[in-house]
Structures are given as structure tokens and as C-alpha cells.
Amino acid sequence: xxxxxxxxxxxxxxxxxxxxxxxxxxxxxxxxxxxxxxxxxxxxxxxxxxxxxxxxxxxxxxxxxxxxxxxxxxxxxxxxxxxxxxxxxxxxxxxxxxxxxxxxxxxxxxxxxxxxxxxxxxxxxxxx
Length: 128
Known about the structure:
InterPro entries: B30.2/SPRY_sf. By secondary structure, the chain is an alpha+beta fold. The protein has one helix at about 75-125; strands at about 10-15, 20-25, 30, 40.
């Protein structure tokens, strides 16, 4: 089972008219129930990538050709991207916290004013 932060890799290679598909989890080959570590398919059949997960799941996906070195993401570049996204999220959260703090402060001031008015009216019913 994969957990948050894990890296799943799917390597697809064409050889001798067959397509081999290998999955790894954090660099270790995933062994299937039958003990196999590869899936073989005929090279002339279409192959469609997809991701399946439970509710609330999310994934950062990078699909590229093995020959296309420019589009291949390194672990470091993905880590930096995730760090940048985390910093943006934390900035957003801090902004929301500040808005909540200011709203609570204003509400507390209004409640204190109302309480003071009600206390004054109890002491001097003529003000009612």
C-alpha cells in the first residue's frame, strides 16, 4: 500500500515485439500475487495509463518517454515542487487564520459592548 509521499513508478519498455510493464514503490519492485514482477503485453495492442484511488486521494503525476530526458522529472525537482506547494498552502492558511482572528476580535468587542449595555440597564431600569 502506498502512503503520502511515496513514489510509484511505472516503467513500460518495448522489446522483441512484447511490452514489459514494471511497477516500483520508492525504488523497490512491486511483486504481484503470482510472484511476477513484470506484466507482458503484445506490442500491437494500445496501452492506456490511468490512476485509481479511494475518495479523498490525490496524486502528482509525471508521464514521459524514457528517451525524452528534458521532460523527465528528478526526485529533487519533484521534492522542490512539493516544498513550494506546501509553503504556498501554509501562507494561505496563515492568511485565513489572521482573518478569523480579526473577525473574532471584532465580534468580542461587540459582545463586550452589548454586555456592558445590558449590565447598565439592569443596574438602572430607568434607562430601559
